[in-house]
Design brief:
The complex is a heterotetramer of chains A (about 325), B (about 325), C (about 625) and D (about 550).
Chain B lengths: L5 H12 L19 H23 L19 E2 L13 H8 L4 E2 L11 H37 L1 H16 L2 H12 L3 H28 L2 H9 L3 H37 L11 H7 L1 H4 L7 H22 L4 H4 L4
Antiparallel strand pairs in B: 1-2
Chain C lengths: L3 E11 L5 E12 L4 E5 L6 H7 L8 E10 L2 E2 L5 H7 L4 E4 L3 H4 L6 H11 L5 H14 L5 H4 L9 H13 L5 E5 L7 H18 L2 E6 L2 H7 L2 E6 L2 E7 H6 L4 H8 L22 E16 L2 E15 L3 E5 L6 H9 L6 E6 L2 E3 L8 H6 E4 L3 H4 L6 H13 L3 H14 L16 H13 L5 E5 L7 H18 L2 E6 L2 H7 L2 E6 L2 E7 H4 L6 H9 L7 H9 L37 E3 L5 E3 L4 H30 L1
Parallel strand pairs in C: 3-8, 3-9, 6-7, 7-8, 13-18, 13-19, 16-17, 17-18
Antiparallel strand pairs in C: 1-2, 1-4, 4-5, 9-10, 11-12, 11-14, 14-15, 19-20, 20-22, 21-22
Helix pairs in contact in C: 4-5, 4-7, 7-8, 15-16, 15-17, 17-18, 22-23
Chain D lengths: L16 H12 L4 H10 L4 H16 L7 E5 L17 H10 L4 E3 L5 E3 L2 E6 L5 E6 L13 H9 L17 E7 L2 E6 L6 H4 L12 H6 L11 E7 L3 E6 L12 E4 L5 H9 L5 E2 L7 H5 L4 E6 L4 E6 L9 H8 L4 H8 L4 E3 L24 H11 L3 E6 L6 H14 L3 E6 L2 H7 L6 E6 L5 H8 L14 H12 L3 H18 L2 E7 L1 E6 L2 E2 L8 H4 L2 H4 L1 E2 L1
Parallel strand pairs in D: 1-10, 1-11, 15-16, 15-17
Antiparallel strand pairs in D: 2-3, 4-5, 5-7, 6-7, 8-9, 9-10, 11-19, 12-19, 13-17, 13-18, 14-18, 20-21
Helix pairs in contact in D: 1-2, 1-3, 2-3, 10-12, 16-17
The chains are: A mainly alpha (about 325), B mainly alpha (about 325), C alpha/beta (about 625), D alpha+beta (about 550).
Chain lengths: ~325, ~325, ~625, ~550
């Protein structure tokens, strides 16, 4: 088992490394560099050259890549090409924001989705199941930004219950904080839960074909126990996997929600970084996203191993 | 042949005698795919949209880029007498519509968009763009994903490892981010959108195809072909692919939905299909400002997206999600 | 009043268009308290469906549409769902065919065994655990104290099958439903499982419904037999009457398909005129296994130093329990698994170990027939294409020639030409197996490697396939390597038998010689394990065999010594487990690998018999004690 | 559109927001009552009604600012490249923040006339080659240190030298700064420039404390200014928070606290205003104007400005080197429709040169607006022999793409094949603008017409974006810079504008108003057109009623 986990960790590092290459050289083919973007319409050749020299962009891409790799391995994320702040200071705050939002959404949506997913699987074909299936399917099939905009129009603009943007001045109490984040939380919970409910239900129903489920029925085991004890323990691997993917999404994929609610998160930062050709920043964000993905899936893998007696107790 | 033992001989005799006890089939004949009424309705909706995608531009009253009215967000039923002869209507109230449009030449069935173009025409035109791009992108994604995925499954070893790592890396990056980088680098034309979406979604297809490939590769009939001395090409195309087709096909539907949503999201960020080409995602986006005062200009394309994607999902669910449900219904 | 009365039971499936397909067509029978009723029939006869009706259950897609199933006089089919649930596991308990699949892999054995009784409130958890442990002891399961905390994958298949019985019995049900509980097991394992079942059923005093297609098994365990065909009762009556005096044609046909006891002289031993001088295919000094090969030793060795020759036109039967390396031997011959050491010789020419390196004609001459026709035929190809491809591939025939050859092949395996346009799913199991054979024959091979081709088939169907093979051998002169765990099948068909144990040949020689003394102790175990169609055989065999070999133990592959050491009744401690046994020749081509001289072996057999007689007495006493 | 403005005492009657603001602007600029009445009459109001309106408008302007309260303002763009060193200011969020934190030597009033700020007095010599700035002596920085000429010298030095990263470097390239006394500096010019003071009103010339840029760049404290608010918190791309500077050197700002954070998404920005989560937003999407106007408690602020959108045909290459092609293309724009449909009325018709009414006296009103004449266009295009072209466009300003698309439609009507290739805005300035034969551009309004023409139309200008090299234009420009006589200047300007209108490859179909939104209880936002919300001048002057 340790060997399996160790192997997974190695694979994770390999993935991170490949990502760093893809992102670095992917960015270097973009038209315009940080200096050109920063100066924009106001660029002249001298000012471009001056800014490039100041940012160190006059050296070849591969040199900068290895320099970056070296710094990265010592934990130094470097300095932003745009604005000159350290990447760590830019990221730190937003990473906190992202984790706060993602965390609270996860705390709400994971138990909710697992509960509803199990409920739907427990009573297949009933109105509850049909309503959940159709409802979640519709939510999954509609663009996220539309859901967000609708909810803003209803709850923020018309009813004025919640703020339309997730803006915090700092120093809020917990409830002020929750209130400020209410809209993005709501939207993300809706979007993420829809996906997880579906997958939980599907994961359970997938093992429901097994002979041991039929055996449980023939032993007179009540449905609640069939689902919670017999099916869930066998479906837990795929379900945890889906949860991990959704959590990774909460860290890296919420750019649209961040845009709509003007929330300063990491995804938006990376988009800004691409737009300003701020390579060190984009690179650092990409590493964080990839790292999150790798770590979450690793945890999911380990959880799957732990939940599977075959892997946990070899013969 | 002479039979010295008694029993086999007896068996032969009995078998010959008793023809009426034919070998019984193993199980009731396999069920063919059968859609529930929701599935049938969904299939009809998808079929209708596909037809619209083909003939939309011919049945649309206007060109997608035609500026019909000066007024934006005119409600459904608004009208224009002739293209350049415009009403100067302060507000498109229901009364105004009745007054001006009762015998107008040209009626905007679903109202006008933010630039005064005909929403209905744009939805009809947009069907081609949206469905076309997504379909072609998904097709390419499948082509790439299956080729590489099955290739990795079949070759194994070093090739499999490298392909899987690169794939995992792309998969670990948020898709919008990748889309953004590519579109920023190469601009946002339809071929580039298709290429971007197909590369991004090829990663998921790769995973599925690889897993399916690995499952099928250990099946006896593949081993039989292998033992016969068949080459890799035959094994992939004749033995593995036909058996992966059904699960891949249902996944195709879901993937198509994701591609539609992905391209809509890119449009939301201003990177999707570029104007004046009508695309449902962009239409939702560009008319969103009208939502605030009751214009449906962004609702119609949203409904178009929703009906299409939900219908595809319904069909896929109908085909695949039956598994397990039947036994689950036996629970007490 | 009988315990269970089934009266005019009708069960239907529905087609897509809603038209019903009758599955069970008005079946009536009854089970009295303490009685074991066997439902016997081939697959498709509705026997499982009927047995499940006694739990008020149908498989999804089927529905009750008439008749009554009364337990203690109360109709189960019209009962409320909640009462039906209480009934299951409490009054009626079910034992499924494959314990490996029916045990939940994520839950400990103890919890699964006691679950039903605790849930129904019959016993508290402590009581249930205690009772389960008693049952483990009664079922002769090893390590009863700790068995409950283990997971299903940690115990063997035979043990799981017995654990399933514990699971069913823990709630003291009135009726047990046993659905083919021994079909998936090796003969050696089958015996102990049967014995355990019989013992606990008798001990617990439950009535039982025993579902099977194997009359020989039924004869050992049932009091009453119901013969089913196509959802209808053909004949029913007490076991003696049905076995000794079958009145119905179908019953007779079932009886005919029962595997005969392997004895010398059962095979057709005439010379087929193909000449015996030259080996068609031979394995010389083969060592093979999985994982990386270092110095001719694979990481996991399956076969060790195997020498087998298949003479032209001969049938060589390879037997042994699961895990002995029978299939591996065939795979090495086919080149699917390159050997680590040794060589495969075809018509005097040494073949490359891996099939990738063999040329097409060499591949053509050695054909592999897979065990499961279900999975060996590509479900997405027409039969015509499945057969056509090797025709084209090996013989280069195209168009009309190819078509003609395909039809010829179908005819050869006694199937109508129309089958060329069907998909495998539209064929029955036996028909699929015929196609599987036809495909192997398509290229006019020299050698057919048949891997357990009848094991997954019902007895009648299996018998038909054997008959077909016999015909083919005579018609085509192909040599067969016939792999089976079933000695009676091999004995009836093979010219020569190779007995494999734990990757080594322990005995080989002409069929008659192998099936007559002196036996290798392992061969003897196999021979005695084949059930006979006679009431009382099980008891007789158990008495003789219990001491003869530790049958409960699994096959263990060892690098040194005799692998059978730990099961051998005449093992010589200090020698057998350390030294590789010498190969002793006995007559023309009959080899036995044993440390004992052949005389000693024969002598020891007599000795064992003596010992056994004493044991038999003890068993009888034991039995009478139970009865009392 | 009838709408009563509840929160003010002004009854504007049936006026559009633009008219309303024009009136207010006119009055603030010091227009006489008669002039204001004439303006009103021009919009079709009766004299009596106009009189009432002008009266109430005057009253509103006279209302006394109220101190206190906090305000949240949301511009449209921010990012990790948000700057705090003025020389690197590039966006409205920087400008607004800069206006809170710093002061300039001079400030521009609503009529773009430089007024004293940190320079108490300033003036040029007769031929405008030497400018003198006498500084205030009573000014302290936020950290308590005294402001003097050294700080000015230090700030100005930021714009010179090879390693300078100033974005306005070129504007002051020929100027040498000299410290004359502790509170006096001189600017000595290589060539005359009568607009230097106006130029110094640009947002990048804000004064910071000596040495603070280096300190900040080396990881130290944020630069210190003298502005009306002290910086409490600054996170690039997130927000900045400013609190009232209690020791401000003049009457001082009205708000206790100002928070500035951008909302990039236009729909979200408007929603935030509608739900009153922010008090002011910059750049309201034309599509959303109607929505804001129909919502109680918020309003649009629209200032006519000289900003423009343009389509550039590069004259130094195919097909722009063909005069008939250029001529034909200029005839294919329905300028009034672009203003009405695309800009939703928030703009003015353009005349293919960059100057409009917003530049005041320098605008040449006599020059006739370029015709829309497809027949003529077809004639010229056929004559040119060019049958197709590709326009590379980016949404550099809202409506740019739509205007290009309308152009495309007009082209296709007369059988000319204009391909449109849209690229993202971020890479556009380096790869599209001035690189491709036909592209688009937008320019913000500059303080004076001369500066505007100098930047983008001078034959030597690096940003001459149609490669139009006209020597006569260059001579006129030099003359205009030195000319101090208003009438003569106008004459020169008129000739320059005519030349650009006729000769350059630039199509300017429309000038955009600066359209912002704010809560109706925010009063006193200036009307300077050089940027959002009164040229970003609001922090010191606006108040909450």
């Amino acid at each position: 088992m340790q060997a399996m986990v160790f192997r997974r960790i190695l694979i994770g590092f390999a993935t991170l490394w490949v990502v760093s290459i893809i992102v670095y050289f992917g960015l270097s083919v973009l038209p315009g560099d940080a200096a050109a973007i920063q100066l924009g319409q106001a660029a002249t050749e001298e000012s471009l050259a001056a800014l490039r020299a100041q940012l160190g962009l006059d050296r070849p891409a591969y040199v900068r890549y290895f320099e970056w790799l070296g710094n990265m391995s010592t934990g130094d994320l470097g300095i932003s090409n745009a604005g000159g702040a350290t990447i760590a200071s830019l990221i730190g705050f937003r990473l906190g924001n992202t984790l706060e939002l993602g965390g609270i959404v996860a705390v709400i949506s994971v138990p909710l989705s697992v509960f509803l997913g199990l409920a739907a699987a427990m009573y297949p074909g009933t109105w509850l199941d049909r309503a959940l299936t159709f409802g979640t399917m519709s939510l999954v099939a509609v663009p996220e930004f539309l859901i967000a905009t609708f909810l803003v129009l209803i709850f923020a603009v018309k009813l004025k219950w919640m703020p339309s943007i997730a803006y915090m001045s700092g120093g809020e109490t917990f409830w002020e904080w929750v209130h400020a984040l209410a809209m993005p939380i709501l939207v993300l919970v809706v979007v993420v839960s829809a996906q997880m409910i579906r997958m939980t239900r599907a994961g359970i129903l997938n093992v429901m074909n097994s002979p041991y489920i039929e055996m449980a029925i023939l032993k007179g085991v009540p449905r609640k126990r069939i689902i919670l004890r017999h099916a869930l323990f066998n479906a837990i691997g795929p379900i945890i996997n889906v949860i991990a993917l959704n959590l990774a999404y909460l860290v890296s994929g919420v750019v649209i929600v961040e845009t709509i609610f003007a929330y300063s998160g990491l995804a938006k930062l990376m988009i800004d970084g691409v737009q300003t050709r701020d390579f060190p920043l984009v690179q650092a964000c990409a590493m964080i996203f990839c790292g999150t993905y790798v770590v979450l899936l690793l945890i999911a893998d380990i959880a799957a191993i732990m939940s599977n007696p075959r892997l946990r107790n070899p013969k | 042949m002479s039979n010295t033992t008694e029993n086999p001989g007896a068996a032969e005799k009995v078998v010959d005698e008793i023809d009426k006890f034919a070998e019984l089939p193993d199980a009731p004949p396999k069920k063919t795919i059968k859609l529930s009424w929701t599935g049938k309705l969904a299939a009809a909706i998808v079929a209708a949209w596909v037809v619209v995608a083909f003939i939309g531009p011919w049945i649309a009253p206007f060109h997608e880029a035609e500026f019909i009215l000066d007024d934006s967000f005119v409600p459904a039923g608004g009208c224009a007498e002739m293209l350049d002869e415009l009403y100067d209507i302060e507000e498109w109230t229901p009364e105004a519509i009745t007054k001006y449009c009762s015998d107008a030449d040209v009626t905007l069935f679903l109202g006008s968009d933010y630039l005064g173009r005909d929403t209905f025409s744009r939805i009809l035109w947009g069907a081609r763009t949206t469905i076309g791009i997504s379909f072609v992108a998904t097709l390419f994604a499948y082509f790439m994903g299956i080729t590489l995925g099955i290739g990795a499954a079949v070759s194994g070893g070093y090739i499999d490892m490298v392909l899987s790592r690169v794939n995992e890396s792309i998969l670990s990056l948020p898709s919008i981010m990748l889309g953004l980088i590519v579109v920023a680098a190469l601009g946002s034309s339809i071929p580039i959108l298709i290429a971007t979406a197909s590369v991004i979604y090829a990663t998921s297809v790769f995973r599925i195809a690889r897993a399916l490939g690995q499952d099928i590769m250990v099946q006896d009939f593949v081993e039989a072909a292998h033992a016969r001395g068949e080459g890799l090409w035959w094994i992939i195309t004749r033995e593995v692919l036909p058996n992966a087709a059904m699960p891949l096909l249902t996944d195709f539907g879901l993937r198509l939905v994701f591609v539609i949503l992905f391209i809509s999201s890119l449009s939301f960020l201003g990177l999707g299909v570029q104007p004046p080409t009508a695309d449902w995602g962009s239409m939702v986006r560009e008319n969103m400002a009208g939502l605030g005062y009751g214009s449906y200009a962004s609702i119609w394309p949203a409904i178009a997206i929703g009906t299409l994607t939900i219908s595809i999902n319904l069909i896929v669910d109908d085909i695949s999600a039956k598994s397990g449900g039947s036994l689950a219904k036996k629970m007490v | 009043m009988a315990l269970l009365e089934v009266e005019n039971l009708k069960i239907e499936a529905r087609k897509d268009d809603g038209t019903p397909i009758p599955i069970v067509k008005g079946v009536s029978f009854e089970v009295k308290a303490g009685e074991v009723v066997a439902l016997i029939g081939e697959s498709g006869s509705g026997k499982t469906t009927i047995s499940l009706a006694s739990l008020a259950y149908t498989k999804p897609g089927l529905e009750f549409c008439g008749g009554e199933v009364r337990l203690h006089g109360e109709d189960l089919l019209t009962m409320e769902p909640l009462k039906q649930r209480d009934l299951r596991g409490q009054k009626v308990a079910y034992l499924a065919q494959s314990a490996a699949a029916t045990f939940n892999p994520a839950i400990t054995i103890g919890e699964q065994v006691t679950e039903s009784a605790v849930l129904h409130g019959i016993l508290t958890q402590e009581e249930a655990t205690k009772r389960a442990e008693e049952l483990y002891v009664a079922l002769e399961l090893p390590d009863p104290d700790r068995l409950g905390s283990r997971y299903p994958h940690q115990v063997s298949g035979g043990q799981l099958q017995r654990l399933m019985a514990a699971m069913a019995l823990v709630g003291k049900p009135d009726l047990l439903v046993l659905d083919e509980p021994t079909t998936a097991l090796d003969v050696t394992t089958q015996i102990e499982v049967l014995k355990a079942f019989k013992k606990v059923i008798r001990e617990q005093g439950s009535a039982a419904i025993y579902v099977t297609h194997d009359l020989a098994v039924v004869a050992q365990i049932a009091d009453h037999i119901v013969v089913l065909y196509s959802g209808e009762v053909q004949e029913q009556g007490p076991v003696d009457q049905i076995i000794n005096n079958p009145s119905h044609d179908y019953t007779r046909r079932l009886m005919a398909a029962v595997r005969p006891t392997p004895t010398a002289g059962m095979s057709d031993d005439d010379d087929h005129g193909h000449g015996r001088a030259e080996a068609a295919i031979a394995a010389r000094g083969i060592t093979a296994g999985y994982g990386g090969i270092v110095d001719g030793e694979p990481a996991i060795t399956i076969l060790r130093d195997i020498n087998v020759e298949v003479e032209r036109g001969d049938v060589v039967g390879v037997i042994g329990e699961s895990g002995c390396g029978k299939s591996t031997l065939a795979r090495v011959m086919a080149g699917l698994l390159p050997s680590a050491r040794g060589e495969i010789v075809l018509n005097g020419k040494t073949l490359e170990p891996a099939l990738e390196d063999r040329d097409r004609d060499e591949l053509r001459q050695v054909q592999f027939v897979f065990q499961m026709a279900d999975t060996a035929l590509n479900p997405r190809q027409y039969i015509g294409d499945i057969l056509g491809r090797p025709v084209e591939f090996y013989l280069g025939l195209k168009g009309e020639d190819k078509r003609r050859r395909v039809l010829e092949l179908l005819d050869m395996v006694e199937l109508p030409p129309a089958f060329a346009d069907r998909y495998p799913a539209e064929l029955s199991g036996g028909q699929k197996q015929r196609i599987n054979l036809a495909r192997a024959l398509a290229g006019n091979p020299e050698v057919l490697l048949c891997d357990e081709v009848t094991s997954a088939l019902d007895s009648i169907v299996g018998a038909n396939v054997i008959k077909l093979l016999t015909n083919l051998r005579n018609k085509t002169g192909v040599s067969f390597v016939f792999i089976s765990h079933d000695l009676s099948t091999v004995g009836s068909f093979a010219d020569k038998i190779v007995v494999l144990y734990a990757g080594r040949v322990v005995e080989q020689g002409p069929t008659d010689q192998v099936l007559s003394p002196p036996y290798h102790p392992y061969t003897r175990l196999l021979i005695t394990s084949v059930p006979e169609l006679r009431v009382g055989w099980l008891e007789d065999t158990m008495k003789t065999r219990e001491a003869a070999a530790g049958i409960a133990r699994g096959v263990e592959i060892t690098a040194v010594g005799c692998p059978f050491f730990n099961r051998c009744p005449i093992a010589i401690p200090g020698t057998c487990q350390l030294e590789t046994p010498p190969v002793r020749m006995h007559g023309d081509g009959h080899e036995i690998a044993c440390h004992h001289s052949l005389d000693e072996v024969e002598h020891s057999e007599a000795e064992t018999q003596k010992v056994l007689h004493g044991y038999e007495k003890a068993i009888v006493d034991d039995d009478s004690a139970i009865k009392a | 559109m009838t709408k009563k403005i509840e929160n003010t005492d002004v009854d504007y009657g049936d006026m559009t927001g633009a008219d309303r603001d024009l009136l207010t602007a006119a009055l603030k600029r010091g227009a006489t009552r008669r002039e204001a009445m004439q303006m009103m009459a021009a919009t079709g109001l009766s004299v009596a009604a106009a009189g009432a309106i002008v009266t109430s408008a005057e009253e509103a302007i006279a209302a006394t600012p109220v101190k206190g309260g906090s305000v949240k303002m949301a511009p449209s763009l921010h990012g990790p490249d948000d700057a705090i060193v003025p020389a690197q200011f590039t966006s409205t969020v920087d400008y607004t923040r800069g206006r809170c934190h710093y002061n300039s030597l001079v400030q521009l009033n609503d009529d773009i006339i430089p007024q004293p700020e940190l320079a108490q007095e300033f003036g040029a010599n007769a031929n405008a080659t030497e400018w003198t700035f006498k500084l205030r002596k009573d000014v302290t920085f936020h950290d308590g240190s005294k402001f003097d000429a050294d700080d000015v010298m230090y700030t100005m030095a930021q714009h010179y030298g090879d390693d300078s990263v100033s974005v306005v470097k070129s504007l002051v390239a020929g100027v040498e700064w000299k410290k004359v006394g502790q509170y006096e500096v001189k600017a000595i010019l290589e060539s005359p420039n009568s607009d230097l003071a106006t130029l110094l009103g640009e947002k990048q010339f804000k004064i910071m404390k000596e040495g603070s840029a280096e300190e900040f760049r080396s990881g130290g404290a944020l630069p210190t200014g003298t502005g009306p608010y002290a910086l409490e918190d600054f996170q690039p791309g997130v927000r900045s928070k400013h609190v009232r500077n209690k020791n401000y050197w003049r009457d001082g700002p009205n708000f206790d606290e100002v928070e500035i954070f951008a909302i990039t998404d236009p729909v979200a920005r408007v929603n935030a205003l509608l739900s009153r989560d922010v008090d002011m937003v910059a750049q309201v999407d034309p599509k959303a104007i109607k929505q804001v106007e129909s919502t109680d408690g918020v309003q649009i602020k629209s200032n006519a400005s000289g900003s423009y959108m343009g389509m550039c045909m590069m004259l130094d290459r195919e097909p722009g080197n063909n005069p008939d092609f250029v001529k034909g293309m200029k005839l294919l724009h329905r300028r009034d429709k672009i203003v009405k449909s695309i800009l939703k009325g928030q703009g003015t018709v353009g005349n293919d040169h960059p100057i409009n009414e917003a530049y005041g006296a320098d605008f040449c009103a006599d020059l006739a607006i370029q015709d829309y004449d497809p027949d003529q266009a077809k004639h010229y295009l056929q004559k040119s022999g060019v049958t197709g072209a590709e326009c590379v466009t980016a949404e550099v300003t809202p409506g740019m793409t739509d205007a290009v698309l309308m152009w495309q439609r007009e082209c296709s009507k007369i059988g000319f094949d204009l391909q449109v290739k849209k690229v993202p805005t971020d890479g556009y300035w380096g790869s599209g603008w001035m690189q491709t034969p036909v592209n688009v551009v937008t320019w913000n309004m500059r303080p004076t017409a001369t500066i505007m023409l100098d930047i983008a139309f001078a034959p030597t200008a690096p940003w001459n974006d149609t490669a139009w090299k006209n020597d006569r234009f260059g001579q006129l420009l030099t003359m205009a810079k030195a000319e101090t006589n208003a009438a003569k200047r106008h004459e020169i300007q008129c000739e320059m504008q005519t030349l650009a209108h006729e000769g350059s490859g630039m199509i300017i179909p429309a000038h955009m108003n600066v359209v912002d939104g704010h809560a109706s209880d925010i009063m006193g936002i200036p009307n300077l057109s050089l940027g959002i919300l009164g040229g970003c001048e609001w922090p010191e002057f606006a108040w909450r009623a």
